[in-house]
Amino acid sequence: MDPTTTIRHNLEDYEKVRGTFSWDSIASELSGLPGMNIAYEAVDRHAMGTLKDTLALRCIRKDRSFQDFTYAELKTQTSKFANVLQNLGIKKEARIFSFAGRIPELYITALGTLKHRAVFCPLFSVFGPEPIYQRLSRGDASILVTSSALFEKKVSKLLDRLPSLHYVILTDITEHISDKILSFSKLMEKASEEYQIQETKAEDAALLHFTSGTTGMPKGVLHVHQAVLTHYITGKYVLDFHEGDIFWCTADPGWVTGTSYGIISPLVNGVTCIVDEEEFDALRWYSILEEHQVSIWYTAPTAIRRLMRMEINPREEYHLEHLRLILSVGEPLHAEGVLWGKEKFGMPILDNWWQTETGGIMIANYSSMKVKPGSMGKPLPGIETGIAEIRDQVLTLITEPNIQGHLVLKKGFPSLFRAYLHEEERFNKCFIGDWYISGDLAKKDADGYFWFIGRADDIIKTSGHMVGPFEVESTLMRHPAVAEAAVIGKPEPAIGELVKAFVVLKPGNEAGEELMLDITGFARKELGPAVAPKEIEFVESIPKTRSGKILRRLLKARELGLPEGDLSTLETN
Ligand code: ATP
Ligand code: MG
């Protein structure tokens, strides 16, 4: 199928859409319900309309069997959970945490919590006890929904230190254990199927997410119910949801992508959402795409890099006729990755940029526009972005193209975060006047496409140049022997910082002097001697966060023998 023939929201009229765009008109496309409740928009609205028998959620278990929920069934289940909260005396804006694998109960908890106007906060199921304690206590958790195995192993010993945690609800026991440790199924059994959603204000708190911790201690980021407008339009324009689409977002709901796009955006757009309980496994992933006839697939560069390393030709070995869009987020996707999509799947992989704080996609390569491999794309309608110079708290927008600066976004879009939990000063520091400062550096080309340079914290200052690690890493990855690369700045008095690269080789290459010289020569030719790495170290793997982001701060701390900092999100297997 030619993907471009099926694009519903043709953004070739991009400028026109931008010109006439208003958040009010987007709001009017959703319900006429007073206020705005995410779960109502995502589930009940469809369950009461023509989509009631459409498949909303398909949860694939580890053994590949699966459980399906239509929109009507999801409405019933989530209403029941909202009643569970009601029956337990849980008040509006209380924090309900989940700490579970990708199982149906997690999705029911998320949406039921939002219906009850409590705040949903997901934790990633591989966290150890201390990161869990930190987040539950910082987040003032009232309820934790988890499994008995996770509870026994990681939570039970923390209870004494968590006096405000009223209940722990276990997803896999049939009877309550005590007044505090309750059974999910027992509570659900007793709860009514009818739940009247109370008026939810657009500004009512809805979601609390902890950031990935790539640059330091994870921040607790708070979003409100009207963020659903961003989930809706980004689903419509970027993910290009059509009626009948089957969408798979591979992110875990422990991270914002897994909630915004693994739950809310597909449902609010009325499509079918696939959930897989298992972790990354290339063969399993390809067979899920085939068996469940996935049409839109949203994944991350870390997974794409792993797939690229394998000798598999997906289009030849699997029936993937239904697949019409592949998208990536989380880190920059190097041009090679974008083009690999074209070669292997017949469509470029569409990179898009956003962060926990923005709650949804802000800048994207759209399928109906010219895709520029290696760029983040253009801002969404309704989103104003700029490149700025910031000096002494004065922000000046840079209007000339191709100049590097801070990537900033104009306040006022619905899904912009409303607080960093317990860190008001840090929150305030993110804003100058009307602009939110993302912490990333980028440049904008003459066609209005944005190009990622690096995180402000990761930028390397060498011999008077500002070097973004991404550019160097992307170049290194074009060398045939390089599978992965991470680049840091290492203090060096004469030049400020020296560019150092950690390189993982593709199988079959021998780490040695000869190859090092070859890679260095290649980088010098491509990047010029000032920017090319002066030091290359071959390593087995590169430390990453659980959400797949390169932890350059950890490589740097290790290189310099400094304390390693918060490692709660470090991927350890
Ligand atoms: P922390 O804020 O705790 O350091 P984090 O910034 O990695 O962690 P997230 O909010 O999950 O936490 O990640 C958002 C960041 O990821 C962005 O600010 C950006 O640096 C990077 N990022 C995400 N998508 C892209 C992309 N398509 N291109 C480039 N960078 C991206
Ligand atoms: Mg961040």
Automatic annotation (TrEMBL):
The lineage of its organism: Bacteria, Pseudomonadati, Bacteroidota, Sphingobacteriia, Sphingobacteriales. GO terms for biological process: acetyl-CoA biosynthetic process. Residues 471-549 form the AMP-binding enzyme C-terminal domain. One of its GO terms (molecular function) is acetate-CoA ligase activity. GO terms for cellular component: cytosol. It is an enzyme of class 6 (ligase). Keywords: Acetylation, ATP-binding, Ligase, Nucleotide-binding. This is acetate--CoA ligase. It comes from the Bacteria. It comes from Daejeonella rubra. InterPro entries: AMP-bd_C, AMP-bd_C_sf, AMP-binding_CS, AMP-dep_synth/lig_dom, ANL_N_sf. Residues 53-420 form the AMP-dependent synthetase/ligase domain. The keyword Ligase applies.
